[in-house]
Give the backbone structure.
Amino acid sequence: MVLLLIQTLSGFTVPEGKDRHQMPWDFVVHAAPDFRSEIMGSFNAQTIEVTYRNGTGWARMRNHDGNNWWVYLRDNRRFLPSGTLLHDARDGAPVAAIAPQMARVLQQEGNWLRVGTWLGENWVQWRPEPPRPIQHHMAWSFLTYLTPDFRAPRQETLPPQIVEITQLRDDGWGLISTPAGDRWIYVRDNMRYVDREVALYDKPGGTERGRLQPQVVHVLQQDRSWFQIATWDGPRWIYLRSAGQPGERLIAITFDDGPHPAHTRRLLDALYERDVPATFFVLGPLVASNPELAIRMVNEGHEIASHAYNHTDLSRAGADRIRTELTMSRDIIRKVTGVTPTLLRPPYGAQNSTVQAISAEFGWPIILWSVDTRDWETRNVNAIMRHFVDHTGIRIRTGDIILMHDIYPTTIDAAIQAIDLLLADGFTFVTVTDLLMERYGTIEPGRVYRQG
């Protein structure tokens, strides 16, 4: 009570939280509290975090990378450099040139300031110091945005490089120039935004150790599409596919009826070598008899989904049988891999309103296809490849969902050829969920999807 009374009488208040200061116009920062010291950068008007005030109007400003630069805080004072002309009016005639000095700002209109000088009140044309690009090393592939907001439309994905930041905000966003125009990036060292829930692993392809909700994470190291991050429970690994770019030709390749102990293993080897994700619609008994392959699918970044349990024609089954098939499929996948499937492909693609309604109960959309390779019928590599390319050229189109079966050796041979062909032509493979999310934003349970 005594302390509170003294503070109240003296006008002193205990500071709460961080010392923040609103800079009302463009400003520059210096290496030392001296206008003659090196200028370290130029910034737009913004709120800054102040770590120290020296009592003469100068303060240290905390930068995104921990640097403490000096900035002059007195809002109605501006430093006028050598060669500044005083004018009798805005856009008026010059009346004098003044030596470098601090001036009291009375009014601002665009790039013109009305200032108080020894001659009275005059106008000067304010030309802020041109921004000095700040070089920053982006250690991983990174996204660009139209506005400094993770919810803004994503633009290009750029490879690791040194970038020149022309504007740096105190919240970690920086502005860079790209061939496509100015873009915003998140520049805090070794930070990355995870935009959806992902699994945490003890090592790449290891055991799942929990789930991570969407957030900005601190990256410790990267191995292809695997990232080691700092978590509340120590270092953990997550699998992240590089985000799509505008105009990127996304497709999804899917495999039904497995996993097969020999053919699926060879397919997974080929997909791993090419860093290509696929979606596997698996059968319950084969998951139970080949658990290491189902686990490998999940650990290597593929999507594992339900093809019912016994390859039953669900359109001919009653509601109870449908629920049993889907329940048994979900439970065996979850038991073996620790992952709950989120998609359904009915065997034969056979579905009706009952299948749709029960699929919706499970929270699953129904995934069909736009390209049927008929690999199960022909079992011939050349015949399968004709669904990918013919005398007119590539037949695959952006958004296609391709149907294949990983239980035939000819399918694996054709799939490897087709993947190499499509990669060379500029297509990007994604999982079915990524494909649908990229186009629709949300996926509706019970809805039938044939293409992304």
Observations:
- Confidence is low (pLDDT under 50) at residues 1-17.
- The longest strand covers residues 101-109.
- The radius of gyration is 31 Å.
- The CA atoms of residues 315 and 353 lie 9 Å apart.
